[in-house]
Specification:
The complex is a heterodimer. Chain A is an all-alpha fold. In chain A, 76% of the residues lie in helices and 0% in strands. By secondary structure, chain B is of the alpha/beta class. The chains are: A mainly alpha, B alpha/beta. At the A-B interface, α11 and α12 of A face β5 and α3 of B.
Chain lengths: 310, 260
């Protein structure tokens, strides 16, 4: 409860700001609608209203502010509207047994989740292997590490379409594989950096101690370096899974994708249905939150079982 | 004199650093006999730790000769000639105390029953019986250091090399551990090489005190202690004790004379 209170306070503040922002964001739309239905608004035409600030519009038409909260296609929907849309496309459809319908966000979230997890597994594996190579080989350290850093400076939105085109050239069917590759591309880096740090965490005296036992390299790795890196690994995994989700959604954005939360966002944009965009966005955020929370839980359990103070 | 365990003759060690060569040890000659308790004392940079690391084969001398049990330090290490205790207890936080003590035994391939038996025995030896299932963070600093001594004793090495093992502990705990260490030494008849900053600690513990001085690291005095093997803590108030302490202090001062 002590931990929940600050979080809830921030959440309340965000919701309040959100509600306050809805009126100025939607006032033009509300006035257009009122004008079309024959009600009196000032100024009278959309053209005339163009040069007037939203604040003045609100001051001159206080009666229309309430309408700004109830538009069908708002610039900025209210949290309530987004929540309603989210429920309509998830829970309500699930109750009707249509959870896996193509109109259901559950279906799209599942598509995104699958690529995210594949990318996460692939990226984590690459990150750990890369870190081991870097820690054990000076040559790899000097040659690979700079490239790993450069790889993260390339904007993923620029790279994603190329990966998709290349993988279709290679005859890979569907979007699953290229999406997982994009996700892995974002995910491997935090894992790599964290694991390099973790594997190098043991103090020199601890390595000396093992040397006094004439321990083999493999023993040093398994008994000292690997366990030392576990706390670092989990921290990296939490960043990595969030990055994977971002990568997957970016991979779903280029035209052609029809399923996944990213595709929903794009389609919502193209068809002018902001509620769909916001619902997909909220679904993605909730999924990211759930995944990170899950890993956090796993971290606590693991560290506790290892006897380390979490 | 008893059988020679460690024999250093004209030992030299120069480190190449970015600021040029550092003469860490210069012409160090010393023999340590079986069952001796030898302390190395001197200001930082005098090479006392480096000398201990040479004995352990963690550093390679650039000149002179060094033998441990009649072998090179590397061979001696592979024959498990010594246990090493560092200033930091360095227990693995993810292992219980018993599992920490078993670490060298696992690496050296002892059977499970043997590991169990030895861990029990050495934990009793350092007065940590009943703490085997605890994790390091549940123990005080002094207890952690005792556990690390138990770990060094677990595989029955004849030599115990200790690098400022009690340096990070407070005076009261240190006194207590010094007493325990002497009792342990009497019971196990190990040969002990002990690096310290503290004059009373060196005098209280040792049969021989090696005074060293820096730049280049060298031995300036070797003092045979006239104190009896039985040493209650209040021996530190006797004239003999104060005499030895005085000589050590003189030795340290002489080594420092040129840079004052």
């Amino acid at each position: 409860m002590r931990a929940a209170l600050p979080v809830l306070t921030v959440l309340a503040a965000i919701l309040l700001l959100w509600y306050l922002a809805v009126a100025p964001m939607n006032i033009r739309g509300a006035l257009d609608l009122a004008e079309r239905s024959g009600r009196a608004v000032t100024p009278e035409t959309p053209l005339a209203r163009q040069d007037v600030s939203v604040w003045r519009l609100m001051a001159q038409n206080p009666g229309q502010i309430a309408a700004a909260y109830e538009l069908d296609r708002p610039r900025l929907p209210t949290p309530q509207q987004v929540g309603g849309e989210l429920w309509k496309t998830t829970g309500e459809m699930a109750l009707r047994g249509r959870a896996m319908s193509k109109r259901s966000l559950i279906y799209h979230a599942a598509v995104t989740l699958r690529s995210t997890l594949w990318g996460f597994v692939l990226g984590t594996a690459l990150g750990i292997l890369g870190a081991v190579a870097i820690v054990y080989s000076r040559v790899v350290d000097m040659s690979l590490m700079p490239w790993a850093i450069i790889s993260q400076t390339i904007p993923i939105v620029a790279l994603a379409p190329m990966i998709i085109v290349l993988s279709s050239q290679l005859g890979i069917e569907g979007r699953g594989v290229p999406k997982a590759i994009i996700a892995a591309y974002l995910c491997y880096f935090p894992v790599l950096v964290g694991m390099v740090k973790g594997l190098r965490a043991p103090a020199p005296s601890q390595l000396d101690l093992l040397q006094t036992y004439s321990a083999s390299g493999l023993q040093v790795f398994l008994k000292l370096r690997l366990p030392s890196s576990v706390p670092y690994l989990f921290t990296s995994l939490k960043i990595g899974i969030a990055a994977s989700l971002v990568g997957t959604i970016v991979g779903e954005l280029p035209t052609g994708a029809i399923s996944g939360l990213g595709a929903r966002i794009l389609i919502g944009d193209q068809f002018g249905t902001p509620l769909a965009i916001w619902a997909a966005l909220l679904a993605a955020a909730l999924m990211a939150g759930a995944l990170v929370t899950l890993l956090d839980l796993l971290q606590r359990i693991t560290l506790k079982r290892m006897g380390m103070q979490a | 004199m008893n059988e020679t365990i460690i024999d250093a003759q004209g030992l030299d060690l120069t480190f190449q650093t970015n600021d040029g060569p550092v003469h860490a040890l210069k012409d160090v000659s010393l023999t340590i006999g079986k069952g001796d308790f030898v302390s190395f004392i001197g200001p930082s940079g005098c090479g006392k730790t480096t000398f201990l690391r040479c004995i352990a084969g963690l550093e390679t001398p650039t000149g002179g000769s060094l033998s441990v049990n009649g072998m090179t330090p590397d061979e001696a290490r592979r024959k498990r000639a010594y246990g090493y205790v560092f200033q930091a207890a360095g227990l693995y936080p993810w292992r219980t105390i018993a599992k920490n003590v078993k670490l060298p035994l696992e690496i050296m391939g002892f059977s499970r029953e043997e590991q169990e038996r030895r861990a029990d025995r050495v934990l009793e030896l350092v007065d940590l019986k009943g703490f085997g299932a605890k994790y390091p963070w549940q123990l005080s600093g002094g207890m952690q250091q005792r556990a690390s001594i138990a770990r060094a004793l677990a595989f029955d090495a004849g030599i115990l090399l200790m690098d400022e093992p009690f340096g990070a502990l407070d005076e009261i705990v240190r006194d207590h551990l010094n007493e325990q260490l002497l009792a342990l030494w009497a019971r196990t008849e190990k040969t002990i090489g002990f690096v310290t900053h503290s004059i009373p600690e060196a005098v209280y513990l040792s049969t021989r005190i090696v005074v060293m001085s820096p730049r280049p690291g060298r031995i300036t005095d070797v003092i045979e202690s006239p104190l009896p093997k039985e040493r209650p803590l209040d021996i530190r108030d006797t004239p003999e004790f104060l005499d030895v302490a005085h000589r050590v202090r003189e030795g340290l001062r002489a080594g420092h004379a040129y840079d004052g």
